[in-house]
Amino acid sequence: MHNPHIANLRPAPPLEVDHWFNTPQALRWDSLRGKVVALHAFQMLCPGCVAHGLPQASRMHEVFAKDPLAVVGLHTVFEHHDVMQPRAALAAFIHEYRLRFPIGIDRPDPHGGPVPLTMQALGLRGTPSLIVLDKRGRIRLHQFGRSDDLQVGALLGELLAEPDEDESADCDDQGCRLPESISAGARS
Questions:
Q1: Looking at residue 137, what DSSP letter applies?
Q2: Has this prediction a pTM greater than 0.85?
Q3: What are 106's strand-pairing partners?
Q4: Which residue of 3, 73, 102, 170 is most buried, as measured by CB atoms within 10 A?
Q5: Which helix (H) or strand (E) holds 156?
Q6: Burial zone of 55 (CB within 10 Å; 0-12 exposed, 13-18 middle, 19+ buried)
């Protein structure tokens, strides 16, 4: 799939999250290794997030529930701080919109800057933003604004079909070596 927003396979920087909803424990990229991850960055007062980004994240969470796909929300506030910072307001928003996937609150800049830490580290331009990581934790899509469902679905299908890390350990540009049990059987 050709997409100008495809990233350069760099590893995702750590999540800097103050609080998590819809998960019993804090999420880290290394705990999601082996899964494709769709991170939707949003603000609850962002019209594009409410109309497009969050419904897309919810559909992905439902449609790919049986696949090794983790959908993660990141509430990253870079404007209207006073109204969006109370945790109770976000909890009510999550409940009202029936968001079932894990959602973290991006940690504010300790120096008082308006842009939270994960948003800074990921180089997000605003919300909604979609970041897709492959099974190895590398950024494969970095997109600001509305993401087309068909293009995202095609990319997710490609990434889900890629071999797991341990399956591709014996692969290079020339191909993959057969496991010993198969190659021994072929010689006899």
A1: S
A2: no
A3: 17
A4: 73
A5: helix 149-161
A6: middle
